[in-house]
Amino acid sequence: MADRLTDAELTVLGLLAERPRHGYDLDRTVEERGMRQWTSLGSSSIYYLLDKLVARGLVERDPAPAGSRRSVHRLTATGHRITEEQSLDALDTPSPVRGRVLIGIANSRELTSPAVQERLRRRLGSLRAQLEELDRRSREQEPLPSQAAALFDYGRAMLLADAAWTEDLLR
């Protein structure tokens, strides 16, 4: 198998596997689907990644039409193959949990202290707000392709589990 792609690279390749896109379209899709919640893919990094993927021969760039600055990018045959291989690999590779909250818990002397309890209540409020935002984004984009619906479902399940865990800490 080729060198392992970063999560951000594989995400960009996956979006290009759906259809050829220009950088702005990629950025808009990442934002609309809430992908920034689970992969570090900022607006400026998309263009850097596109250049990197072109250099690796996984993506080709069509010249921008006259009067436009937007070049369209598409997967090469190698890009399609690598995207499929590494996407399948990602399905059976559990990701380690690295939530910053775990550091806060580990460094707290007493979970029942007023300061810790207040921060956990604030956390719970933030999780609920994120859940509302996720649900709103999902509704706005209906009907969703099955893989996009699965991404929203996963995000929802993770937020619900995190909220339930936080509620347990508050008891």
Automatic annotation (TrEMBL):
The keyword DNA-binding applies. InterPro entries: Tscrpt_reg_PadR_N, WH-like_DNA-bd_sf, WH_DNA-bd_sf. GO terms for molecular function: DNA binding. It holds the Pfam family PadR. It comes from the Bacteria. Keywords: DNA-binding. This is DNA-binding PadR family transcriptional regulator.
